[in-house]
What does this fold into?
Amino acid sequence: MNTLRPRAIAYTAVQLRFALSSLTCWRIMDGDFNAQQLYQHIIDYFEAPPGAAAKVRVRGLLLWWDRKVFGPYRDISHAPEVVSSLSVARLTTQHALVEAPPAPPVVT
It folds into this structure.
């Protein structure tokens, strides 16, 4: 995942509302509050903007979310030599060496 989708934002908002409430178990309805409606309203805001200006605002907001969650440099792709020098690549190589079957004995 390198970009937030409207449904992920809506899901997070519903879960946050539940976490901040006094409920001890999940329910769609909490008195007058309907979690399913909140989810759908957020999705509608992002996926069905009413006009051109609203579409521009939605694109801007999604870009803002992406930058806040993934950082401003998320679109930078690294060259293979850079990726191979990352600690994750080094650990993967070390793990492969440890897990490799032992070499057969050399018979002379």
The chain has a mean pLDDT of 83.
